[in-house]
Structures are given as structure tokens and as C-alpha cells.
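This section describes the prediction task in plain terms. A model, or a person checking by hand, is given the sequence of a single protein chain and must write out its three-dimensional structure as a string of C-alpha cells. No templates, partner chains or ligands are provided. The sample shown here is typical of the held-out split.
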Amino acid sequence: MNHNNHQSQQSSEGRHDDDDASLSEFLASLMDYTPTIPDELVEHYLAKSGFQCPDVRLIRLVAVATQKFVAEVATDALQQCKARQAAVVKDKRDKQQKDKRPILTMEDLSKALREYGVNVKHQEYFADSPSTGMDPASREE
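The expected answer:
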């Protein structure tokens, strides 16, 4: 039994070393990567929240995580938009929609952000209407 315990301890240490090597390799790769979100912007918001770090790798890690978060929220908002527009089409079966492009609204974005624990409060604006900017003859309101 003592022999098995020794083996599992060595196996655990081996995995830990592999994890450390993978992390080091990943952090090194961040030096060659140019994220979509500029380092200066990430540094600004980190400093604004009281966090300062001279390590560019960490700044880029935050940028990559932020980029992933924004992409996931945008994808979820697009799904909300498509679901909303599909419901509108069902309600107006006899009327044909000429323009089937998705129109993302603050409501779609707010619902997507709510899934991540971010509550957005906004005032209603004239531009929140999906038909804003369309030719008056093509509006279906």
C-alpha cells in the first residue's frame, strides 16, 4: 500500500511539472501575440481598478480573456436577436419580410449579458426601434 501511495505521488508531481511547462509555454507565446484589445487599454482599466503589473504577458492574458468574453456575449446576443426575429416572423406569417438581416438591439445585448451576471440598464431611445433607418414604405409597424 505504501508503494502505491509513492507511485501516485510521483504521478501527481509529473502532472504538476507538465502543467507548469504548459503554462510557461503558453505565457511565452503571449509575447508573440498581438491581441485585438491593445495593451494600453487593458493597462488603463487594470490601473483604474487598482491593479498594476509590469509583466506584458499578464496584460495580454487579460486581453485574451476579455476578447473571449466579448466574443461569447456577441454570439449570445446574436442568438437572442435571431430568436426574437423568428418570433416576429411567426406572428406575421402572411406578411413577407423583404430584409432578413439581423438587427441587434440593446434588448438582445442586455439579455445576453444577463446570462453572465451583468445587468445593463438603459433608457429607451428612438434608435432602439428595429425599423429605425428603414424606408418608410417598407416599415411593418
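For orientation: The mean pLDDT is 79.
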